[in-house]
């Protein structure tokens, strides 16, 4: 294959990554996505059948992403996030350490149930408000949301798009995935919390003048019930081969209908909440990465990966996945590495997910959630410095990753 042709999908991927970092308007994002996919397809690098397979594999994941974002948006409009943050603030009795515990567990719960995007986009702002209202630094709570958005997305297949992309390569049901990852998550939570307590010990010991917190509206019961039923639906229908997108789609339709009757959102707002341009972006990313996987990068990754599932091999897989996630973003890395690991079985794919989820917290480019979190804090006037971000990530991520791989090796 001519080097110039081989370089086209790499250039297309770089354009997509820059677009993700800049986060322009939806129309620009969609245009770049279409151009990247079109240029890649024009090279003829990838067989059309493989492209259709990649799009077919991604389609249910994209539909799930769009519908779960709508579910999370309606929950936010109904006051669930504000009410949850107020409960945590009240239970802390003004104590920064107690507030951190509550925020930490709340962020882990939101990530597991509504995905990491809900944690960084919808929960983080109300957590900042809760911290400032009791006169403590907002940074420990904000970083708890960030760390949990990546590290706590291990529990359920629906917690992260990386998990959903990996599920076709795993011989596991929804419940089987959760059963294996639950002990891993417990250890991850303990390590992450200990790291936050150590890294933010000064902020947790410093008090500031409290700010008045806006009163949280009384949350409606309907969204809470729908989300609970949605979770049960994920677990109950998974053994029958029902994709999560059908369950989240039904939940989104019910909640949009309810919210419209309550005049909480319009049809246009519901469409905006689904972020259709980002859905197109993910599909284009799949096409571009499918082309890259057939070229030199796919060959290079194949040579790096081990051929066993020993503890050392699982650790190497997690490290390779971490490096790829931070070079390509975790979504791109998942599309590249998971199919290569599938022949090694469940342990290898799950080890990759540890690197793709936990490891993506190492740099801003590791996960799109990191960029969304940074952008959201800037809008709140709490923009973190690069040195502070890496002070946390470079210490917490390797320790958490090693602990997670160690537990995975014991349970699989």
Structure description:
- It is globular and about 60 Å long.
- The chain contains 20 helices and no strands.
- It has helices at residues 3-22, 26-42, 48-77, 80-92, 96-114, 116-133, 139-151, 161-166, 174-199, 201-205, 221-237, 244-261, 267-274, 276-293, 296-304, 311-328, 330-341, 346-357, 368-379, 386-411.
- The model has no long low-confidence stretch (mean pLDDT 88).
- The protein is mostly helical.
Please state the average pLDDT score.
Answer: 88
How much of the polypeptide forms β-strand, as a percent range?
under 5%
How many individual β-strands?
A: 0
The low-pLDDT segments are none
User: In whole angstroms, how far apart are the ends?
Assistant: 40 Å
Gyration radius, to the nearest Å? 21 Å
Tally of DSSP helical segments: 20
| Protein structure class | mainly alpha
Order of helices and strands: HHHHHHHHHHHHHHHHHHHH
For the biggest sheet, the summary is: none
What shape does the CA trace take?
A: globular
The quaternary organization reads as single chain
Question: Fraction of residues in helices?
Answer: over 70%
């Amino acid at each position: 294959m001519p080097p110039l042709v081989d370089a086209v999908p790499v250039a297309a991927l770089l354009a997509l990554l820059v677009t993700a970092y800049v986060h322009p308007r939806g129309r620009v994002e969609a245009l770049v996505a279409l151009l990247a996919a079109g240029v890649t397809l024009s090279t003829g690098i990838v067989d059309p059948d493989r492209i259709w397979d990649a799009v077919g594999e991604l389609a249910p994941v994209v539909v799930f992403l769009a519908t779960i974002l709508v579910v999370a948006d309606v929950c936010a409009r109904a006051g669930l996030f504000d009410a949850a943050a107020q409960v945590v603030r009240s239970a802390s009795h003004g104590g920064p350490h107690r507030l951190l515990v509550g925020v930490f567990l709340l962020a882990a719960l939101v990530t597991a149930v509504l995905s990491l995007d809900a944690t960084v986009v919808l929960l983080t702002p109300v957590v900042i408000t809760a911290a400032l209202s009791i006169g403590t630094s907002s940074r420990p709570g904000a970083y708890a949301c960030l760390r949990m958005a990546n590290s706590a997305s291990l529990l359920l297949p629906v917690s992260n798009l990386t998990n959903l992309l990996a599920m076709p390569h795993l011989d596991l049901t929804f419940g089987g995935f959760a059963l294996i990852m639950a002990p891993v998550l417990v250890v991850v939570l303990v390590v992450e919390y200990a790291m936050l307590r150590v890294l933010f010990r000064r902020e947790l010991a410093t008090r500031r003048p409290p700010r008045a917190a806006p009163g949280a509206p009384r949350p409606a019961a309907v969204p809470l019930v729908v989300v609970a039923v949605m979770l049960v639906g994920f677990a109950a229908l998974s053994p029958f081969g029902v994709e999560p997108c059908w369950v989240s789609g039904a939940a989104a339709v019910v909640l949009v209908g309810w919210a419209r009757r309550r005049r909480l959102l319009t049809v246009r707002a519901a469409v905006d909440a689904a972020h259709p341009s980002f859905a197109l972006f993910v599909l284009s990313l799949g096409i571009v990465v499918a082309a890259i996987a057939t070229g030199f990068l796919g060959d290079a990754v194949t040579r790096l990966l081990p051929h066993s599932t020993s503890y050392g091999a699982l650790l190497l897989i997690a490290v390779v996945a971490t490096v790829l996630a931070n070079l390509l973003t975790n979504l791109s890395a998942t599309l590249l590495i998971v199919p290569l690991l599938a022949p090694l079985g469940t342990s290898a794919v799950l080890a990759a997910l540890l690197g793709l989820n936990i490891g993506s917290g190492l740099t801003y480019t590791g996960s799109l959630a990191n960029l969304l979190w940074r952008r959201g804090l800037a809008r709140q006037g709490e923009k973190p410095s690069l040195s502070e971000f890496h002070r946390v990530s470079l210490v917490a991520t390797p320790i958490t990753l090693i602990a997670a791989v160690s537990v995975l090796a014991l349970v699989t």
